[in-house]
Sequence to fold (265 residues):
Amino acid sequence: MKKFRRQIIYDLRVGTIQYWKQYSIIFLFFLLLHFIFITSYQGENSLSYFDYIWNFVKGIPPFAGADRNQSFSIPMEWAVLHIICMFMNLKYPYIDLYERNIQFFIYSASRRNWWLSKCIWVVMNTVIYYSFFGLGAAVVNFIQQGGASSQVLIEINLWKQVLMLFVLPIFVSIAIGMVAVVFTVFWNPIIGMIVGLGIYIASVYWENSILIGNYSMIIRNYWVKGEGEIHTVKGILFSIITILFTIAAGSLLIQKKEINRKGKE
Fold:
């Protein structure tokens, strides 16, 4: 347990604290995007805090089954929010395994400890990432003297709004990030990125409860639409199952992994 705790502390220091510049850039980036949203907003009502969040997590209706003359497009705000988070989750585990494999053996003393600590780091990094995203919205909302209630979701219970806008996207990002990390660590970072991006793109195209990215597009949520298979609680449970599965799979694969510098095996 002591060695595992030491591994977690190491990941906290090297993978989080030393990346403070990266988090600062993310915060400033979201500040800029929230201000851009203000300039392009054309609604009659003043913007609220939840409206800033909604702008990024709303997604779009599914493309499949729509008008054939409609061109397929990715919702840019939604894609930026989730794909940057995925890339950040991929970077540190890969670098730590292949560029710092001396520390790998010194700190972990157990391959499984190393993997479990990285899983905890992915959760922590995702929460920090979304915290800066939400903080950016709060700062802009404070400057603009906006309220807290969303005009779009005003008829939905506040706790349901919180689950849809904050909790659900975090769980989905952790789940997809974990899947991408498994492919990155045990196969190739390019494969990891392709798999992660493939899940998101396929989710945009098809509204299907099996495609986990659907749950992060709130416009498809049952509480918003009043119909469909995309339920908030179902999405959280599906995400948890995916996370647990990837943790178990990684624990088995790491025992057989041959580690060499710069990913060469």
In short: The longest helix spans residues 111-143. Confidence is low (pLDDT under 50) at residues 261-265. The radius of gyration is 19 Å.
